[in-house]
């Protein structure tokens, strides 16, 4: 659903026009909390507060595997015993009250993937009551590995 600049309140029109002058790509998304203006690739701004948004791979995973679920993007950050923090891509709150954390990676192996895997594995050890899912896109589909403590 598209939104025209003219449909926005005057103050927001000014902000959008100023942003358009400085950056070529802008898109609009509607969410429960109201209108969000996506600035560039990874951040949105709502009333002066920046929020991350899913990249294309994370959004595709959500559409395919988390449809109809209470899935929230980067909803939790875990502080681990070694002082590091880890924020999974998707946190799913199931109807039974369980929590699932999904980490999504694309087809290209980047250096950050190894760091993410280390943090993911550490979080699995420190928070064993959570179901952990590592999803890697390969040849057009997602290969998922589910870790749960019985």
How does this structure look, described?
It is a single chain. This protein is α+β, with helices and mostly antiparallel strands and 150 residues long. The protein has two domains: 5-52, no CATH class; 56-147, 3-Layer(aba) Sandwich (Trna Endonuclease, Chain: A, domain 1), CATH 3.40.1350. It is built from three helices and eleven strands, in the order H-E-E-E-E-H-E-E-E-E-E-H-E-E. The strands form three sheets. Strands 5-8-9-10-11 form a five-stranded mixed beta sheet, sandwiched between helices. A four-stranded antiparallel beta sheet has the order 1-2-3-4. The termini are far apart. The model is unreliable at 23-42 (pLDDT under 50).
Briefly note the CATH topology name of the largest domain.
Trna Endonuclease, Chain: A, domain 1
Tell me roughly what share of residues is in helical segments: 25-40%
**Gross CATH architecture of the largest domain:** 3-Layer(aba) Sandwich
Average of per-residue pLDDT values: 79
Query: What portion of the residues fall into strands of 2 or more residues?
Result: 35-45%
| Order of strands, widest sheet | 5-8-9-10-11
The CATH C-level class name of the largest domain: Alpha Beta
Count of discrete alpha- or pi-helical segments spanning 4 or more residues: 3
DSSP summary, beta strand count: 11
Unreliable segments of 5+ consecutive residues: 23-42
- Shape assignment: elongated
Compute the CA-based radius of gyration.
Answer: 18 Å
Supply the helix-strand structural class. alpha+beta
